[in-house]
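Retry 2 of 3 after timeout on previous attempt. Resubmitting structure tokens to design endpoint.
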């Protein structure tokens, strides 16, 4: 039987975590794995941090000295993953979400914190599975479509565009 284990750790004090947010993150991870027809048991680590903490990680691992919304640290490459020898589960990697940035973006885009955190989780899960939007093109479009498909499945469809008008930038 396939089991999905999502380990959630809160290392920030800036944002009170709403009731149900941890369950939403777990549901989101499961939805992405179902969408991608991932055939194995899996483990994913999700850590909530603040802007200062994610900026430090962004600087350390990506040479970008600024806070970001989410970072993905895949443990696999080309469909090959480390395995938890006790459970047989594939270790997909780590997701780090700045709840502070998620609150800012939810307000900016006019939707709920739950929608934003769900979207960031889906986005990061796709990275853990090997998707990369940084090159642009069809991969970026495909990734966005999958993110929105997961959000719709979870009852959090897009209510606005992620594209801002020039006067909002």
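Retry 2 succeeded. Sequence:
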């Amino acid at each position: 039987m396939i089991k999905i284990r999502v380990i959630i750790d809160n290392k920030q004090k800036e944002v009170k975590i709403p009731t149900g947010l941890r369950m939403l993150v777990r549901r989101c991870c499961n939805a992405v794995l179902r969408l991608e027809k991932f055939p194995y048991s899996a483990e994913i680590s999700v850590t909530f941090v603040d802007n200062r903490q994610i900026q430090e990680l962004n600087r350390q691992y990506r040479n970008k000295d600024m806070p970001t919304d989410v970072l993905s640290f895949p443990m696999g490459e080309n469909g090959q993953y480390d395995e938890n020898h006790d459970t047989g589960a594939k270790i997909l990697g780590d997701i780090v979400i700045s709840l502070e940035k998620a609150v800012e973006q939810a307000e900016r885009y006019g939707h709920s914190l739950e929608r934003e955190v769900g979207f960031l989780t889906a986005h990061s899960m796709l990275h853990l599975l090997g998707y990369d939007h940084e090159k642009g093109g069809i991969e970026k479009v495909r990734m966005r479509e999958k993110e929105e498909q997961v959000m719709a499945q979870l009852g959090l469809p897009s209510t606005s565009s992620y594209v801002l008008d020039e006067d909002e930038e």
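Attempt log closed. The chain has one domain: 4-155.
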